[in-house]
Amino acid sequence: MHLALYQPDIPQNTGTILRLCACLDVAAHIIEPAGFPVSDRHFRRAGMDYLDQVSITRHDSWSKFEQWRNEAGLRLVLFTTKGAGSYLDYRYGRDDVLLFGRESAGVPDEVAGVADARLVIPIRPDLRSLNVAMAAAMALGEALRQTGSAIER
Fold first, then answer.
1. Does any domain span residue 152?
2. Quick check: helix, strand or coil at residue 71?
3. Over the stretch 112-149, which tens digit does the pLDDT of each residue have?
4. By residue range, what is the domain housing residue 126?
5. Are 135 and 79 in contact (CB under 8 A)?
């Protein structure tokens, strides 16, 4: 399982998501450019000492990320408020890439257009969206539950 962040722009959310990936042993990908330097103190504080425990691959552009993904033959599962189906109804695979967009703008149409699935986490219709770190935790938890990839204790 892989979790990818498209041009993240809030360092605290990115640090929290990378900590989640470390704890659940999930590979993380950051698709540049990020809206902050990876040395940002908020980013480091949110990730705490877990940042040394996570496998992070930085892709310097969307095209480089897509090249990597296509060569690896991995499905791209986009989480978006414009999703076509619920994240709970989707059947995840162990090699899926769960993609989350920028907090301020999501992903552009060209990115959404190549996703193998566009999923939504249903929320109250009068509210805009969940925090991206919360959405990532919910989505990753469901994907790991379905695939049996969760760490056993």
1. no
2. helix
3. 999 999 999 999 999 988 999 999 999 999 999 999 98
4. 2-147
5. yes
